[in-house]
Amino acid sequence: MQSTSGFPTTHWSQVARAGTGDSSSRPQALEKLLRLYLPAFRAHVIRVLRVPASDADDLVQGFVCDRIVAEGLIARADQTRGRFRTYLLTALDRHIARVRRYDSAKMRRPEDGAASLDETIDCPAGEPAAAEMFDIEWARATIAQAIEQMRKECEGGREDLWRIFRARVLGPTLEGIEPAPYAQLAEELNLPSVDAAANLTVTAKRMFGRCLRAVVGRYAQENELEQEINDLRQILASGKSA
Where are the alpha helices (DSSP H) in 48-157? Predict the structure, then answer.
């Protein structure tokens, strides 16, 4: 299933395993699912809802514990009612609205008074700009996972790939610095020629592409990988100024 906003939608088979799978596989499936969303949850809370970073982790942790785990939020997801990402984002916004109402009520009422909360009040999902920000942060988190996977794979024998990838790809892309000259890299890495440095860069890019496909493959089917990766690029390109 493809997101109309351009960002890939989590496959409902994965949602089913995390929400209603058997007791032996459910925890692992839920952990994998949350790993995709937690960085975007935190970024959304801080950057869109304007919650101080010092409070964001507690709010996200409360959402995961109280709504996703205790209330079985994943199991109640309905494929016929829209995108899973939108479902989670709406639930997160509602959870934080409830927390804020509760905290506000505590400040207004006597210490021994009773709070009255209407849990059925609809809290609208984020505005389009907020949803787009969530997409951007999720895309960044996905890329970060691929980068970390490549870094780990390069440990213990392929440090040259990692160093040239950082100098020619990561630095220019993420930090806006000029790519290191091939001649410089050839000397630093003890390579025989400039061509060897250029070829090593190609190998490093291919390795990153494989790592990215592995990360995206956790939620996308094989025949959708290329489209999913193209969507990631488009989301990131649209959010460079964010």
Answer: 53-62, 84-108, 128-154
Rounded-to-integer distance, Cα 217 and Cα 195, Å? 33
29 sits in which H/E element = helix 26-43
Task: Evaluate if pTM is beyond 0.85.
Answer: no
Q: Can you give the pLDDT at residue 2? A: 38
Instruction: Give domain limits for the chain.
Output: 1-126, 127-242
Q: What is the spatial distance between Cα 138 and Cα 160, in angstroms, rounded to a whole number?
A: 29
> How far is 37 from 87, CA to CA, in rounded Å?
12
Q: Which residues of 201-240 are buried (b: 16+ CB within 10 A; e: fewer)?
A: beebeebbeebbbebbeebbeeebbeebbebbeebbeeee
Residue 96 CA to residue 92 CA, distance in Å, equals 6
Q: Cα–Cα distance between 55 and 96 in angstroms, integer?
A: 11
Lowest mean pLDDT among 39-43, 181-185, 193-197, 233-237: 233-237
Q: What is the pLDDT of residues 114-130, one digit of tens each?
A: 333 233 223 344 444 55
